Amino acid sequence: MKNLLSLFAFTLVSLSLSAQPKPAVRKPVNPAVRTTATQSNSAKTTTTPQNKPVAATKPTPQPATAYQEQATAAPTPTPAKSQTLATSRPALQPTIPARESHFQIGFRLGGNSSTIGGVDVSELGPGVKLERVTGFHGGVVFNIGGPTFSVQPEILYTQYGVRMAFNADYLQIKYNLVEVPVLLKATFGTSNAQFFVNAGPVATYTLSGTISVREGGQSDSQTMDMTNEGRFSYGASGGAGVSLKAGPGKFLLEGRYSYLFSNSSDETKLTPQNAMLSVGYLIPIGGR
Questions:
Q1: C-alpha distances out from residue 114 to 79, 102, 128, 137, 268, Å
Q2: Is the N or C terminus of the chain more exposed, i.e. has fewer CB atoms within 10 Å?
């Protein structure tokens, strides 16, 4: 019986030993295959986790032919219409207010009606009266200053005179003078229509004179000898008028009155007086 138990135990030990797995025998591996496997394993170990996007590897750029470059070239975007208009229009410049000229030059001409003061008509005789003499004037006008206040010197050729009449007969004295007024001028209104007043001193130089006589239906005249006569005189002048915008300048319509003082040495102080109605035109020089 004891021998049977020993035999049974020996049989179980043999079966357990035969059931254990045998160790695997490793075969030699080619070095090239080993390197490839190592690189593959390293690539697997460095694989990007699933929660992060895998960066795409950029292919090596290959030289493109001219045809491929032309085909793959991106089309030039066409600018929008509003952008084209914006770029085609010139840049707006700030508006610069026009600067009005402070110097103007022009002319004036018109008619005169003159007489003389300082004469006692009663001493001339019964029925004798003083009458006004008509003439003309014309010359150059300068205006210096702003649009409201300015100085206006002028150089005019003008005529003064007086007539002492008795019925159809008369004795007339007429002078030709150079008159130089220097007027202070004030202007009011808009740029298209203005009203102005002026006043200032005036100086004259007598060029010549004529005496005309009519008696008994016959007339005669002669030139006055100015050798011993005082040719210079002075006085005051003033007037008013309107100016209207016309073309590049201004059209003037003015009435003026001049009052002179005689420089004669005798006790009689004659005062030639002249009423003038004239038209003129002033053109600004400079400015923009």
A1: 80, 34, 18, 12, 19
A2: N
Confidence of residue 126 (pLDDT cuts 50, 70, 90): confident
| Phi, psi at 98, each rounded to 5° | -65, 135
Cβ atoms of 228 and 256 within 8 Å: the answer is: no
Q: How many helices (H) and strands (E) does the chain have?
A: 4, 10
Put residue 118 in one of left, alpha, beta given phi > 0 → left and psi -120 to 50 → alpha: left
pTM, to two decimals: 0.63
The radius of gyration of the chain from alpha carbons, rounded to an integer in Å, stands at 60
Cβ within 8 Å of residue 270, ≥6 positions away: 116, 117, 118, 119, 262, 264
Length of the chain: 288
2: tokens are 């004891």
Helix (H, G, I), strand (E, B) or coil at 4: helix
Q: Higher confidence at residue 222 or residue 70?
A: 222
User: CATH for 103-284?
Assistant: 2.40.160.20
Listed by start position, the domains of the chain span: 103-284
The torsion angle over the Cα atoms of residues 64, 65, 71 and 73, rounded to 10 degrees, is 50
